[in-house]
């Protein structure tokens, strides 16, 4: 069985909250991401938080991660301008202080 994912576009976003200890802000962000998952071009998604791992190379400062799989770059590009995505930014951007995005495609 081949476990390798091929011919996909990965969009992985990490969010840092302005109020790092605010459960209310984290819940608002998570609820917003759940709504965002209804964008039609999203194949799969995962909403996460830092795992309980501790090694020098592991970044654990973020509050929430958003992992999204698209079929291709065109689907990811349409997601960026989708009204659901724009509404998410409008409704949730006030809770985060920093966002880092890692997009990747097959080597």
UniProtKB/TrEMBL annotation:
Q: Which Pfam families match?
A: Dabb (PF07876)
Stress-response A/B barrel domain mapped to chain residues: 9-104
Q: Which InterPro entries match?
A: Dabb, Dimeric_a/b-barrel
Name of protein: Dabb family protein
